[in-house]
Amino acid sequence: MGEQLWYVAEVQGQWLALLGWSAAAYHLKGRDARIGWNETQRRARLSLLANNARFCLLTPAGAHPNLASYVMGQCLQRLSPDWQEAYGHPILAVESFVDTQLFRGTAYKATGWQALGCTAGFQRVAQDFYQVHDRPKQLLVRELVKHAARTLRARQLPAAWAGYERPVAPHCLLAAEQAEGLWQVLYQQVPESRNVHGLRHKQATVLAIAFAYVLSGGRGGHRGVALFAQDLSPTQRAAFRCWFNRQEHRYEVPTENCIYRVLKAVPVRSFQQALRRDPELAMAELGLAKAHFNAEALADAFDHMKKAAQLAANGKLTPKEAKWIALGQLQLEAIFAAPQERTRKLEEYRRGIDELIAPAMVGGAAGRGVTPRTRCPRIGRGGVASRHGWASGSAVDGGRGTCVRGSAFGESAIGARGV
After folding, report:
1. Alpha-helical runs (H) found in 114-158
2. pTM greater than the 0.85 cutoff
3. What percent of the chain has pLDDT over 70?
């Protein structure tokens, strides 16, 4: 059932209201955008949120004026200490849903809850599967601690809260096309070390998942790889060519014993040589650098970018791919450069982006008979700005107002003052 608390509001033994609290929803677009945390932070700190799953008044309407807001206010005051006593950690913020077709949510608004819009109207029916129910709910949130959203999205939690952050298992950072390319290389280059008759999972599937585990920051043996595999989404499982169970209609990942047998039997040298021959691996490293950059893990981003540059030096990439990696390096170097050097690097970066995107933009625009343009809004004085689509991303030099279009990392742009 998970973590939950139930409250009864009573006067002289008469029950007046019931409140139920449970663990927070796993994914909420409006809530996550309001907090501003990344995927790793969300998984590690989600336990510091609670969801008001039930709120029921047991008295006739109007019998006790302001009863709902009073009960809610009293409950919010004691919720975090009670949760600390029951489950060993406090609560920083709470969330709830209101069916606006039936209720107005007045009691929530009167006690300081903030409306963040409506949900998309889906309900979860299984892991990674949702169905439409056509009853969008209004999402409301409330901070129990001042600046809770700022605390939850901080790179490191304050000392008072750091002990409650849960360890997070590695999450696959490879995109589906990168996983597919990695599988193809391992399937073609590494000889099968087992008798394939009757086997569910190909050797390339196990090796690709194990390598993705290491690339995503995993540290451990075959058991860690098995746990990592269980968290793969259906799309990722399909990209890794996992066995499809026709009776259950789902992709099954290799078991711990299967992973152990493959890793023990496969020739290590063949595995290493295959990875060195993979021209797509450099682009996979670029993608991992992008993921760490978006998570503000700059040290990891630099490490993966360095590996991408080393792999690109083999000369097996297309000129365009090699250019993207070079621009990624330049973009990262601009973060900690001195002001004058930063301006030069940003100008060089801008010219490189223009050279890459101009042919595609001109070609697409010519076909439609329009003048090509690239949006370049001002985003303030530095910092990290997230954009959707590399053709419209931008960064502005806070000292000189220099506009830098695009981003080698796809969704991010670097401001003049870095991060």
Report:
1. 148-153
2. no
3. 70
